[in-house]
Design a protein that fits this description.
CATH superfamily: Formyl transferase, N-terminal domain
Bound molecules: 5-O-phosphono-beta-D-ribofuranosylamine
Structural class: alpha/beta
Helix content: 40-55%
Shape: globular
CATH architecture: 3-Layer(aba) Sandwich
CATH topology: Rossmann fold
Order of helices and strands: EHEHEHHEHEHEEH
Strand order of the largest sheet: 3-2-1-4-5-6-7
Number of domains: 1
Largest sheet: 7 strands, mixed
Amino acid sequence: MNRLAVLISGNGSNLQAIIDHIAAGDLDAEISVVVSNRADAYGLQRAAAAGIPTEVLDLVEIKAAGGDRIGYDVELAGLVAGYEPDVVVLAGWMLILGNDFLQRFTPHIINLHPALPGAFPGTDAIARAYAAYQAGDIKHTGVMVHRVVEEVDAGTVIVKEPVPIFPDDSLADLEERIHLVEHNLIVAAIDMVLRAL
Ligand code: GRF
């Protein structure tokens, strides 16, 4: 069966899109586990409401107990592997994952990033694109799903989609437009990866 492990850090609107498309029967997969690095991530409630097992592994807590980043990646890899995913999906996951995690699941780790390849890697990509548009540096932005490698937001692109920016857009307008594209693109990317397994 097409088993997914979905990693989140916050709201989980992309997780919800995956849940909804599976329930509607247009994504042939099952979410085996949802893992967050934050116990207060609303996405955990979305998973629980859908009857999906959830796990929390909080880096801050692990560091406070004397652990380090590599130990975190090793523990996270073991936790995720226990659910035997075919594909690991980073959907709003905000931590950089090192080789101790990546090597366990490569190449079947994919990440959703709200920018076009090479444009705005890292955090706050939407706000950075908005500022670049205001400065006249770009005409549009976009969304991509890519395979995860050690370099942040730099792996092989699975699918990408441009997103227009309009002169009277507020940042919130652009964020809303981008999230709508994300919710479709993440599902399409998962479908493509599962069919290519
Ligand atoms: C999304 O823009 C995602 O691409 C980024 O975090 C945002 C929140 O995603 N990494 P979600 O609502 O938690 O799915």
